[in-house]
Amino acid sequence: MTALVRHVLVKVSRRWRAAGVQARSALAATTLLAVVIAGAGVVLLATLQHDLVQGIDASNTAIAQGISAQVSADVFAATPGPEGQEDLESAIAEGAPRRAVVQVLDSTGSVVASSAEVAEEPPLITDLPSPGARDTSRIHVRFDDDAYRAIAVSGSVGGRAFTVVVAQSLGSVEDSLHIAEITLAVGLPFLLLVVALATSVFVGRSLRPVGAIRRAVERITERQLAERVPVPEGRDEVSRLARTMNAMLTRLETSAGAQRQFVADASHELRSPIATLQAAADIAASVPGSITTAELAELVGGESRRLERLVSDLLLLARHDDDGVRVRAEEVDLDDLVDAEARRLRATTALHVEVDLVAARVVGDPHSLSRVLRNLSDNAVTHAESWVQIRLRKVGDSAVLEVANDGPVIKATDADRVFGRFVRLEESRARDRGGSGLGLAIVQELVGAHRGTVGVVPQEQGARFRVVLPLLVLDGADGELDDENEFDSKDKFDEPGEVGEPAAVGQDVQGRSAGVPVRPGGSTRSRPDR
Predict the structure, then answer these.
(1) Computed over its alpha carbons, how large is the radius of gyration of the chain?
(2) Which neighbouring-strand residues pair with 398?
(3) CATH 3.90.1300.10, applies to 324-518
(4) What integer pLDDT is reported at residue 376 of this predicted model?
(5) Cα 33 to chain center, whole Å?
(6) Residue 191: CA atoms inside 13 Å, Cβ hemisphere, count?
(7) What are the boundaries of each domain within the chain?
(8) Secondary structure tally for the chain: helices H, strands E
(9) Angle at the Cα of 151 from the Cα atoms of 146 and 157, rounded to 5 degrees
């Protein structure tokens, strides 16, 4: 039996889930209304019955009290007087309504007077009420199939106790209840049918825009992302859904366009060194001796390294697009990295390299931070006329790194675009003078992964890039990192505050920054400014 019930419930559940929203809504509304009306009907019938019975009780009480007033002591005499008996019977005949019976009982329960319907009947009740009290009961009489509602009111006259019993038929109550039951039985199905149809129509009209949205989405493919779903009028949930889907389609279209542009740009950048290698190979093969082995090795090595850097940059950006750049979290002396990069520039370029730095320790990945420095400095060297400047200072709870040159000015309108992928702002930044156009894009991703910011500082001459990173924070007792795991660029963090005037040389910065907490007492060391 249990298995059968479970099987039935499973089938009903499957059918319920398979039904559409329109059918489920109509069925749910109809079922709920049926339950509510059924409960209300039960309450209505019970209230109606109670009120009708209370009305009969009130009528019986009034009749009994009126007859009690007509009872005289002569009625209970050994030889009752005819006048008293006649007056009492006249009062009973006048006071008793249709389908009501009356009996007057003496203290022993014997009938001393009654209405014509029960003239030869035994007492209607056997248990007499106590003096001054009254009782109600449900009784049956032999001459009627309906039940009667009886009330017994006790009284006394001339020292003799008596009881007046008045009973009225409950047939009118039962008739009224029967009519109400028929009304509910007939009206309820009709009302439920109307509600079911109305709910189905209204829900269907409400879901009509959803159907239009669904059909529009079915037509949209990866080659038709420019299409949009129809937005119904109003500000209801369906219109908000349509606007949300259109916003999503806009993002997908933008992303797909950027991806196609990225692939096209990457293909173009990869084709250049490949074409150079192919041309060198063709020349060496067609004109023997036109190029020496050393020259060929230098050419192949240079283009191979360029290919390697380009592929590495592409892989880094692809990983960021996938799940964010992940970097190690450890203590890094940023001033050491700046000093090493300055020495490299002085050894590899004839430009004047100016360095101004203070000791600054941050939390991050030294390799990634070195790459940030190298990309910024290589960009500065590429476009500089005579000098490159690297400046590191502490402002509040942030380390501020600036790399500048005296090359072309970056316009305010290009301040954000310069960090795009494969972006070259002008002819002086063409491929023969620079890299692949990915360096600044990688800088932005790596700085963001370190919970920092990077931007262009407006100035009238040259270009200046500013990187703001959170300084190391001390917290605890043993000087070790609380979290030596990786953190990524998608973690939530507070950006460093606005950069104002540089901090004083050697200023000791305290307080919590947006970086990873560290416990004091360990390897943190104070270092003189350079």
Answers:
(1) 50
(2) 395, 470
(3) no
(4) 92
(5) 29
(6) 15
(7) 17-219, 237-320, 324-518
(8) 9, 16
(9) 140
Give the integer Cα–Cα distance in Å for 194 and 66: 53
The per-residue pLDDT for range 9-59, each reduced to its tens digit, is 667 667 666 667 778 788 888 888 899 988 999 999 999 999 999 999 998
In the numeric block, the tokens 């889930």 are attached to 17
Residue 349 burial (10 A CB sphere; 0-12, 13-18, 19+)? middle
129 token code pair: 């009420």
| Residue linked to tokens 């190391």 | 472
Beta-sheet pairing, 473-474 with 517-518: parallel
Contact 141, 115 (CB under 8 A): no
CA distance 383 to 379: 7
With 0.85 as the threshold, say if the pTM is over it.
Answer: no
Look up residue 503 and give its DSSP letter.
P
pLDDT in tens, 325-355: 667 788 999 999 999 999 988 888 889 999 9
Could you give the 3-state DSSP secondary structure of residue 103? strand
Task: For 254-313, write each residue's pLDDT tens digit.
Answer: 878 777 777 776 776 677 678 777 887 888 788 777 777 787 788 788 778 777 777 777
Q: For residue 105, what are the β-bridge partners? A: 111, 163
Contact 157, 71 (CB under 8 A): yes
What's the rounded Cα separation, in Å, for the pair 112 and 119? 10
Rounded CA-CA distance 58/486 in Å is 87
Helix-strand-coil split of the chain, %, nearest 5 = 50, 15, 30
d(CA 134, CA 149): 13
Amino acid occupying residue 205: R
Which residues share a beta bridge with 352? Answer: 387
CATH number of the structural domain 237-320: 1.10.287.130
Cβ–Cβ under 8 Å, residues 363 and 472: yes
Fold of 17-219: Beta-Lactamase (3.30.450)
